[in-house]
Amino acid sequence: MNALLLLSLVLAPQVQDAPSEPEPTAAEARAERMRTFADDLAAESGVAVVFEDGGPPHLRIGAPDSPAIVLVPGELDDDEPLQAAFDGDPVRAARSIAIDGELRAVLDGLCVLVPVALEGRGSLVVDPGQNFPARWSRSREIAGRRAGPYPGALPRVSELTDWLLGEARCAGVVLAGVESGAVARGADGLYAPGSLAAFAEERVGASVESCDRTWVGRKAALLRAVNALPRLELRGAHWQRIGASSWTLDLVVANVGPTGTGSVAHARARRPRGVEVQVELRSAGARWASSAVALEDGAPLRVLEARDGVLALPDLDGAHACRLRLFFASEPGTEGAAPVVDVEARSARSVRGVLTGLSP
């Protein structure tokens, strides 16, 4: 009997516990928490909010594919950069957005990017505020070891540097939660060497604002950054007939904002394509034949080629303009019919300019 019992136990199917789900990593848990946070913030404020897990993980608040203002902590030793945006009270912030018509209107036309985590921790030796690649050698002379062994030595500094240089939409940086007067220009009119403010202005070509930890202070800084955005404007439309079925259309493409549409020259190689000003035309009754542009008043026109109905212009500095001449020819079978043209000027980090229904 004992042998039979032993045999039955050996032959009986073994019941195994179901494999347990692996514990989420810290990054996965944070991403899930931030997605929920973004959904709650969007529902509470009525503004589009999305968690994006690229570069440093960040929230995008406002319109996608629009000029962007990056809101970062002024003190990069903070372990929770999100505190710089909401100071631990996202519900109050969301309700403030919901009832603030001025801010809601702004967020319909641009986006605010808020890092929620930065790589690595601070250092007891290196000051992240002196480790950015903006006149770093001078920072090293002033601060010694505090500036680090090389620019971007701190992981969170190099992560933020790469992100800002690669983010084509970034036209403004707001340093939140800093002491009054901490972000100031020196006697030379420049921000401190090695600082995030100097890097944002000199390498990214972005405007720089700062604010305290109050919601009123944050809103005021955001609105100042909005007013500093590049703004493209189309004006001075003038038609001229140059033949039985041909016309020219002269336009001025102007950047009426104080910030340039692209980065400064020495950072341009690090910028992704698409930062340049693009002019797109849609026409009826005539086809777009060719184009020419003059970048300075009185300069001769030079021919530019369009690709897929889009004309690429060089970057425009703040308060600069260029003159554009467009040539149109009647479509076969419509000789003599006047063209009707819609024109849009845009760049990745500029407010767009639009003219519709242009006709001789």
| Unreliable stretches covering 5 or more consecutive residues | 3-11, 265-275
What's the number of extended β-strand segments?
Answer: 15
Figure out the total of helices: 9
**Spatial extent as radius of gyration:** 27 Å
Q: What is the helix/strand order? A: HHEEEHHHEHHEHEHEEEEEEEEE
Report the principal-axis shape: globular
Fraction of residues in β-strands = 25-35%
Average pLDDT level: 79
Which range best describes the helical content: under 10%, 10-25%, 25-40%, 40-55%, 55-70% or over 70%? 25-40%
Oligomer: single chain
Strand adjacency order, main sheet:
1-2-4-3-5-6
Biggest sheet layout: 6 strands, mixed
First and last CA, distance: 108 Å
SS content category: alpha+beta
Describe the structure.
The chain is globular, with a radius of gyration of 27 Å. The protein is built from 9 helices and 15 strands. With 360 residues, it is an alpha+beta fold. The chain has helices at 2-11, 26-45, 83-86, 90-99, 101-107, 136-143, 155-166, 196-204, 215-227; strands at 49-52, 58-62, 68-73, 111-115, 170-176, 207-211, 232-243, 246-255, 277-284, 286-294, 302-304, 310-313, 320-330, 340-346, 353-358. The strands form 3 sheets. The protein has a 6-stranded mixed sheet. It has a 5-stranded antiparallel sheet with strand order 7-8-13-10-11, with no helix packed on it. Strands 12-9-14-15 form a 4-stranded antiparallel sheet, with no helix packed on it. Mean pLDDT is 79; it is low at 3-11 and 265-275. A hairpin with a 2-residue loop joins strand 7 and strand 8.
